[in-house]
Amino acid sequence: MRDMENRININGEWYVKENTVGENTQMKRPYMLGDKFSLDFDYDGMLECGLEIDEDTHVNILEDLLTSFEDVNYHREAAPLYDVIEHRKYQNEYGSNEVTKENLNESLRAFKKECEDTLENMIGSTLRIDEE
User: Residue 7 falls within a domain, yes or no?
Assistant: First the structure.
């Protein structure tokens, strides 16, 4: 039974928790934009960063965030982020209107939902995305 205490279920797959209380564990370094995989990678911090972006977030920041998601193989979560970036680039080049704003916001909501779902599975807490 003790072995199950050190495991976590993510999307139906069981994983061993890296940080367990009472054992020698390496402290996680807080997530920074563009971080790539490391043994102390802050997955929670990356996902929380994803929840903080909005329609005004600069494209370079979005691309750095995408780099991190791709490097740690969070492709499912990152899929809507590709769309967010493309919508922002389109708006930067051709201007914004109601259709482009709605497309951007829809992709942004989908991305945040992926981040929220993954965090919920990882840490077992319920997070809330503000509907705009």
Answer: no
From the number of C-beta atoms within 10 Å of its C-beta (0-12, 13-18, 19+), residue 37 rates as exposed
**Three-class DSSP category at 7:** strand
CA distances from residue 89 to 1, 45, 95 in whole angstroms, order as listed: 51, 26, 9
Residue 90 token pair:
């389109």
Contact between 46 and 68 under an 8 Å Cβ cutoff? The reply is: yes
> Could you tell me the two tokens for 59?
């494209």
Amino acid at 88: R
User: pLDDT tens-digit profile of 30-56?
Assistant: 999 999 999 999 999 999 999 999 999
Residue 24 burial class via C-beta count within 10 angstroms: exposed 0-12, middle 13-18, buried 19 and up = exposed
Domain limits for position 90:
29-123
| pTM exceeding the 0.85 threshold for the entire prediction | no
Cβ contacts of 121 within 8 Å, gap of 6 or more: 9, 10, 11
